[in-house]
Every structure is written in C-alpha cells, then in structure tokens.
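Task: sequence design from structure.
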C-alpha cells in the first residue's frame, strides 16, 4: 500500500512592497491624466469646431465623457477582472487607453472625438478596477487604506 500525503501546502504569498504599491498607484493616475491633459485645450477645441451646431454642449461633453463611461462600465470591468484576470485586463485597458488617448489628435470630426473619449472611459474603467483590485490583493487591511489614500 502506498502512503498518500493528504496535507496540502499553500505556497507562501509574496508580500507586496513599496515598489508594487507605487506602480499600482501610478497606473491609477492614468484616467486622471486624460481629463487634466485635455482641459487646457478646451478653448482651442471650441474655436476649431465653432461652426458645429451645439459646440457649447459637445465640447464639455468630450471632457466629461470618460467619467460617464467609468461610472457606467466599472461594474462590467469588475466581472471581466474576475473572469479573465487582472493582468490581462490591465494590459488590454492600458493599450486601448494609449491608442484612444492620442486618437483625438488625428481626428477631425467632433462626433468621432466624442466617441473616442467614450471608449477611452471604458479603458479607464478597466484600469481603475484593476488597480483597486490589486491594492486589495497585495496589501493587508491596514496597508490598503494607505495605498488607496495615496
């Protein structure tokens, strides 16, 4: 008869440090940059698209569109994180964020710019969901509060 070892050893969980915390927090700043970087350009955008009907509403909408999509799609991103994993979503969301973040520079139609900003908000929702999830995964309760505050 062969003896079977029934004790299951769980691997030691690697403790996250300051480096991981800083990296996750920096990734969480990406969505903020999308608004901050665009805000100074609003007068130029208003001037450029001045002939477009409703420009007074559409240009502020393109500034706030990512925030709207963050609010609407974050629950979906939570499901995606659980289903497909943190790393995969963070990589895809960051790549999409980079592509869509520069898209308005190349677009000459205000409606397409707004559409790109709406899609950018979905990528930002993915980034924010993953970064907050990673803080929960990496740090103990007392450390979480510190990293979320940062």
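Answer:
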């Amino acid at each position: 008869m062969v003896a079977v070892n029934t004790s299951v050893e769980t691997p030691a969980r690697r403790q996250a440090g300051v480096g991981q915390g800083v990296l996750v927090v920096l990734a969480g700043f990406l969505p903020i940059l999308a608004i901050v970087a665009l805000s100074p350009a609003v007068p130029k955008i208003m001037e450029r698209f001045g002939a477009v009907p409703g420009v007074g509403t559409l240009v502020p909408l393109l500034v706030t569109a990512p925030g709207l999509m963050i609010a609407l799609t974050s629950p979906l991103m939570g499901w995606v994180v659980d289903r497909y994993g943190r790393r995969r979503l963070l990589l895809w969301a960051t790549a999409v964020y980079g592509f869509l973040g520069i898209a308005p520079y190349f677009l000459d139609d205000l409606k397409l710019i707004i559409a790109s900003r709406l899609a950018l908000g979905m990528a930002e929702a993915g980034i924010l969901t993953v970064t907050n999830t990673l803080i929960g995964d990496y740090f103990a309760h007392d450390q979480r509060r510190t990293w979320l505050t940062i």
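Residues 55-84 form the longest helix (30 residues).
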